[in-house]
């Protein structure tokens, strides 16, 4: 396959009139000029990686926005979540994830890291096949065409000090042996699904202890030395306080002191960190997985992005609870939150890249690729052909020279600018439409009506 792009954002920057040769999903050549038989497109940019997703939560977006006279919080939101997920079957999970992943693709996400912790049946008992729920996620990725990094979640306790799980958490819980078997089963499943891989996600320091965490990391690294490891950390101030009360250390500091973090670790949220923890994350090459719309929706707080990027930290973005499924909105609010704190403008740029929008898009795509250990994140020879074609008719209404194009996309457009989406060398969205979007939406709406009744 050959694609001729009038302008394209390559790893080294913008280029004009380039032909991409794609074989078996990989970019084999990038050459100047139009070649015979090449499909013509206008503006091309790399696809975005979603570093943090809980697919089932897409189905209860909007259910937790009732007023409570200022008493609502992340912790009360969890009760709504527990009540909702108590009803979900593997069939429901696949319907939800398929709908979500199609939405992601249409908005420009080409790969997703699924932080998957809904493991067991309605009674909290393991399925005969431990990976039954995980298989539903693999099937949804296959049906939609999105790239998938599955992260089975290790969840054992309800709080620091090995507190017993609550009733609402019964579908999450595994001991070390059962969890490692689940991970091994997911690795075997992945072999049957193209463009997928597997890592692990210790849920949080309150949900695991050192022995469990160490055992799980050793097991997955024996299966794949580069497996991604994601963990919720320092999301809420209460979590930080509870961790300090139990361990005498803040969460990120405890993790740095007790585990050998590296570039395959992604610390999700890390909202409440101090300077020492921030610098420790950067020194370890760990990734900050920032989810601005969910963090705002849950009242988590704001990650110190300005300082983190100034010190050469690596970040990725995620849609988490899917109150928004839009990478443009995540990046817009990543910048806007810093503007509100600093009372300045155009903050998340640097001397090398003056465009805030371009710096954010390219940095997040590369960080997302690192967080999923996938051959994605930029358009270059040898990289996977995950790319977006933008709608030039929409772009024509804004400043759209190369210097300002991604600034306009992120900060000025209010409609979806993504026209076509390619994943692993295959078109999955054309002219803004996905082949299965109508059937997926109907199945999702019908399911939602049943479980909400």
Word description of this protein:
The chain is of the alpha/beta class. Helix 2 runs parallel beside helix 3 (132-144), helix 4 (176-190) packs parallel to helix 5 and helix 12 (356-372) packs across helix 14 (405-411). Helix 8 (275-284) links the parallel strand 11 and strand 12. Helix content is 38%, strand content 21%.
Using brief descriptors, characterize the structure shown.
453 residues, alpha/beta, 7-stranded mixed β-sheet
Present the secondary structure layout.
Blueprint: E1 2-10, E2 13-23, E3 26-32, E4 39-46, E5 48-53, H1 74-85, H2 90-107, E6 109-116, H3 132-144, E7 147-154, H4 176-190, E8 196-198, E9 201-202, H5 210-223, E10 229-233, H6 237-247, H7 251-258, E11 265-269, H8 275-284, E12 287-290, H9 292-297, H10 305-310, E13 314-317, H11 327-342, H12 356-372, E14 387-390, H13 392-395, H14 405-411, E15 418-423, E16 426-429, H15 437-452
Parallel strand pairs: 1-4, 5-6, 6-7, 7-8, 7-9, 10-11, 11-12, 12-13
Antiparallel strand pairs: 1-2, 2-3, 4-14, 14-15, 15-16
Query: What is the beta-strand fraction?
Result: 15-25%
Compute the separation of the termini in Å: 48 Å
Helix amount, in percent? 25-40%
Outline type: globular
* Global Rg: 21 Å
Structural class label: alpha/beta
Which whole number gives the mean pLDDT? Answer: 95
Q: For the report, how would you describe the main beta sheet?
A: 7 strands, mixed
pLDDT < 50 runs, ≥5 residues: none
Number of strands: 16
Strand order of the largest sheet: 3-2-1-4-14-15-16
How many DSSP H or I helices?
15
